[in-house]
TrEMBL record:
Keywords: ATP-binding, DNA-binding, Helicase, Hydrolase, Isomerase, Nucleotide-binding. This is DNA 3'-5' helicase. GO terms for cellular component: nucleus. ATP binds at A48, G49, P50, G51, S52, G53, K54, T55. It comes from Trametes pubescens (White-rot fungus).
Length: 777
């Protein structure tokens, strides 16, 4: 175990400022050190700007709580915004407190933590432990089906209501904690308003989708959607939080193990996530949060920046510590970023400073149209690689966009210049067709009630099971109040005799495959082997070859899924890993069914060690939450990553990303095109302050060079439309005090600037001769 005190001593001292709230902290020591060692029983808000090393402070605090305050690692709950952040934190903690201690900490996203506890305490909230997590794509399909009967009514009234929007609308109210009944009541109340009341409300700008006929349709769809999910024994992403809150609020035992809750990226937590934090911390009242209100950019996902104030109300002894040292950027980048965000007079005032030198001044340039702007981006990237003497490589550049759609011109320009590039916020790995096909088989193995998976793969690969047959199976399922999967199993077993032999024949390979897989899964074999078993049994490679022109890359993705499964196996809790190894041994010894059953019995008695020593005998069987397959499916469904690990490794490419997806990341050079009205802020944005923060987040990703560009006109709906500069940037440019924070002159990168860049990005300074050679080339 590393010497924590020595590591804490290494932290750079920074200026400490008391909170503007009631509780002031005054100390002459480093604010980071104070934050790490803050008394554990006093709730703490660490408010820190970009690049201030928030993750490091949170990680050190966890290590401090375990090493110096002697809290058992299993009594800590650490919540991160993405799985990537959780993995990063895990890696750092392994170095500080060792692998065993780290593995015991309950760490992950709010969704993953809820899923884990809901598996264990499913019955407390009235669900089955083998529930399937229904992803956004499946939710959309369910809603599309439920929307069909209303299509005519809507089109007669000239109303466009797409399944995508409904998924978003329902998700938004779920995040607020509304049930389907709450939604219906709300619509009834709205519809009972007098015309005067309604007029008064609308005058206050309180337009509401949940009213009138649309409101009624939405409420009906919401209700049926919930029913469909429950019938399929599945929870969507919002349900994980809704049921999680229900569990922790009603069942004190579920959180009695917890002695401290730590939350990263607190500024983006929504109401449900706040409630979760509050309930999990119920026994101890010990909470540490880290966040930056200036980086709150997920209002459209119902994040609540007000949660800071809420915490101070619910945990009245809360104290605040501000970390104001930025370790990432040059001071000229920081000065410009601060000039942008400080235009918001309503924000919590905080300053940020850096020990880094000034460095090259950020560039602001205007171009006639987006193609010229994109060509500039590509040419400038090439020029910088040369003028830096090769200190920059392609992987050091990012182009940050407000809209995905703007990537086309940039991609074209980079391709023309033969600059390798990758799109960061592209299709998520787990949303790819081939991945979803394989996962659907495994979901069905784990939860035969999960109808979306059945519908996806009953005819994949093609088995001549047509839509008509599927429709009949679904009707029969509704009649018998069982799932379609159970219907086809009964057909094969001859328990539904009125089915024609050809239909039975077509369905046989499907049921047979599922049964073989189920047998393996029940024995607990490793998920990586199960994935291989799926693709072998259904001959998926052949199916891809026959149906997909890009079958090779799709097959590579399937292989990547096997790798992912192996990684999940590697991090499985001991009890699950033991079960997996036993299953593998059983396969090797070719034992019969009897011994498989025996191992399942044993495992059931071991599984309930999750919360230390508090499990009661006899609870084990009911609590058999985690299986290797379930852990794997859960990790897949709750993955927040957009890339395959393989893509992540190939760093030597210019990155094109949305500003949202760049959160938490950094690059030596950042270029932000289209800083124009209608883009920053977006025409669709409800909250313009949030749009300003988004631009601030984008600028603060830069370590050494920053470019903002805009155009005179841009193609929109097939026509060039005149553009004006974003007000956030325009305000900086026109203010005499801040106008010099930009320059039009491109950085010539003289030796002094190259030295600064080398320090900031921590690279060796290239020889002068190399610069001359590359520039000449
Ligand atoms: N004490 C330190 N000394 C030197 N460099 C540091 C220190 N702490 C963090 N850094 C570096 O500063 C950069 C920013 O750190 P990090 O990404 O953890 O900040 P953050 O607060 O999470 O930022 P953001 O909120 O913008 O995502 C990283 O390159 C990190 O390695």
């Amino acid at each position: 175990m590393a010497d924590l005190n020595a590591l804490l001593g290494e932290l750079n001292p920074a200026q400490l400022r008391g909170s503007s709230r009631t509780h002031h902290i005054v100390s002459s020591r480093s604010s980071r050190l104070v934050a790490v060692q803050h008394p554990l029983q006093v709730p703490l808000q660490i408010l820190a700007g970009p690049g201030s090393g928030k993750t490091k402070v949170l990680t050190m605090r966890i290590a401090h709580l375990i090493t110096n305050c002697y809290l058992p690692p299993w009594s800590l709950c650490a919540v991160t915004f993405t799985n990537k952040a959780a993995n990063e934190m895990r890696e750092r903690l392994v170095k500080l407190i060792g692998k065993d201690n780290t593995a015991q900490i309950k760490m992950g996203t709010f969704h993953a933590l809820c899923a884990k506890f809901l598996r264990k305490y499913s019955r407390v909230v009235g669900i089955e432990g083998n529930f399937t997590v229904c992803d956004a794509d499946e939710s959309k399909k369910i809603i599309a089906k439920l929307l069909k009967p209303y299509k005519d009514t809507l089109s007669n009234k000239n109303i466009t209501l797409k399944e995508n929007s409904i998924v978003g609308i329902i998700s938004k109210v779920k995040a607020k904690g509304w049930t389907a009944d709450d939604a219906r009541r709300h619509v009834e109340e709205r519809n009972a308003e007098t015309p005067q009341q309604r007029k008064a409300r609308l005058e206050k700008g309180k337009n509401d989708l949940w009213e009138g006929e649309i409101g009624e349709i939405l409420a009906e769809i919401y209700k049926s959607y919930e029913k469909t999910l429950r019938d399929s024994n599945s929870l969507d992403f919002d349900d994980l939080l809704v049921f999680g809150v229900k569990l922790f609020a009603q069942h004190a035992k579920a959180s009695s193990w917890c002695r401290h809750v730590l939350v990263d990226e607190y500024q983006d937590t929504n109401i449900m996530q706040y409630d979760l934090m509050k309930h999990i911390a119920r026994a101890s009242q010990c909470v540490t949060i880290v966040g930056d209100p200036d980086q709150s950019i997920y209002g459209w996902r119902s994040a609540e920046v007000e949660n800071l104030a809420k915490m101070e109300r619910d945990f009245p002894t809360t104290q605040q510590i501000h970390l104001e040292q930025n370790y990432r950027s040059t001071s000229s980048i920081l000065a410009l970023s601060m000039a942008i965000v400080s235009q918001d007079k309503g924000r919590i005032q905080k300053t940020l400073h850096t020990a880094h030198p000034k460095g090259p001044v950020p560039v602001l340039r205007i171009f006639p149209i987006e193609q010229v702007e994109a060509a500039f981006v590509a040419a400038e990237i090439k020029r910088l690689v040369a003028y830096s003497g090769g200190m920059f490589n392609w992987g050091d550049f990012v182009v940050l966009l407000r809209y995905n759609a703007h990537s086309r011109a940039i991609e074209n320009a980079l391709q023309k210049e033969r600059i390798p590039n990758r799109v960061l916020a592209g299709q998520k790995f787990f949303e790819r067709m081939e991945i979803k096909d394989v996962l659907a088989y495994l979901q069905l193995v784990d939860n035969p009630q999960f109808t979306p998976a059945f519908l996806r793969v009953v005819n994949v690969p093609a088995r001549a099971v047509g839509e008509k047959t599927v429709h009949q199976i679904t009707l029969r399922a509704e009649e018998l109040k069982i799932s379609p999967m159970q219907v086809v199993e009964r057909i094969i077993d001859g328990k539904i005799p009125d089915v024609k032999p050809p239909v039975k024949k077509k369905l046989f390979p499907f049921v047979d495959t599922l049964r073989i897989l189920r047998k393996h899964a029940n024995a607990g074999i490793a998920p990586s082997k199960l994935v291989n078993a799926v693709v072998d049994t259904i001959n998926y490679a052949d199916h891809l070859r026959k149906t997909q022109p890009d079958c090779d890359s799709r097959w590579d993705n399937v292989q990547e899924l096997v790798n992912f499964a192996s990684e999940v196996e590697g991090s499985a809790p001991d009890d699950v890993a033991r079960r997996m190894h036993r299953a593998d041994d059983d396969i090797h010894k070719e034992k019969g069914d009897e011994s498989e059953e025996e191992s399942e019995e044993e495992w059931a008695d071991e599984v309930d060690e999750f919360d230390g020593d508090q499990a009661q005998p006899g609870q084990a069987r009911a609590a058999r939450g985690d299986t290797p397959l379930r852990l794997f499916l859960q990790a897949s469904m709750l993955s927040t990553d957009t890339e395959t690990p393989e893509e992540e490794k190939s760093q030597a490419k210019v990155t094109i990303s949305t500003c949202h997806a760049a959160k938490g990341l950094e690059w030596p050079v950042v270029m932000i095109p289209a800083v124009e009205c209608g883009v920053f802020p977006s025409t669709r944005a409800e909250d313009t302050a949030e749009e300003r923060r988004l631009l601030y987040v984008a600028c603060t990703r830069a370590q050494s060079l920053l470019y903002l560009t805009h155009t005179e006109s841009r193609m929109m709906s097939g026509e060039y439309k005149p553009q004006t500069i974003s007000p956030y940037v325009g305000a900086v440019r026109t203010d005499p005090q801040t106008k010099d924070l930009f320059t039009e002159t491109l950085p010539a990168l003289p030796l002094e600037d190259r030295k600064t860049i080398a320090t900031v990005i921590n690279r060796p300074l290239p020889e002068e001769i190399e610069v001359v050679r590359l520039v000449a080339e």
